[in-house]
Amino acid sequence: MSIRKIEPEDLARVRSICLDAFMKSVAPTLTDEGVETFKNIASVENFTKRLDADNEMLAYEEKGEVVGFMEFKEGRHIAMLFVSPNAQKKGVGGSLVSAVLPKARGDILTVSASLTSVSAYLNYGFTCTGDVGVSAGLEYQPMEMVLN
Asked: Closest Cα partner for 19 from 72, 69, 77, 92?
């Protein structure tokens, strides 16, 4: 197991992981608009643009294969966290969250969690901080982790 920065050549695999996990667990709870919004956000083109921005993108590799992905925005916000369906519930997500904690630029780490991922974020140490919201068809629960 290793966690490393994403390289441009990883982006097709990262997109595949994100779409596989999203379509399995999140898409059935959303409208068509939300599914299309996510597909656009998770395009290789948009990943490439964000890779050049103030975003840290990490891969969780197991036996040479990327099985998990995290996008950490501006040192304070988890923009994406996806684990390949066959690697879920094995500590991959928690390991990625732990990997960004030392990189945080402040006392609070935030995430707009999909409703199906709230329990995972609660396990990582996040708490719910407001009402469920909807943006471009994507439903989310605002959450935060207060850092010591």
From this structure: 69
Amino acid 22 reads F
pLDDT > 90? residue 53: no
Comparing CA positions, the residue from 120, 109, 114, 115 lying closest to residue 145 is 109
CA angle, corner 130, sides to 119 and 37, nearest 5?
75
**Lookup: tokens for 145:** 């982790």
Q: How many domains does the chain have?
A: 1
**Three-class SS of residue 22?**
helix
d(CA 118, CA 81): 12
Q: What is the pLDDT of residues 66-110, one digit of tens each?
A: 999 999 999 999 999 999 999 999 999 999 999 999 999 999 999
Within a domain: 9: yes
Q: Which two tokens stand for residue 116?
A: 């199906």
How do residues 21-38 score in pLDDT, each as one tens digit?
A: 999 999 999 999 999 999
Instruction: Look at residue 100 in the predicted model and tell me its pLDDT.
Output: 95
**Is 74 domain-assigned?**
yes
Q: Does any domain span residue 89?
A: yes
> For residue 73, what are the domain limits?
2-104
Give the global pTM: 0.93
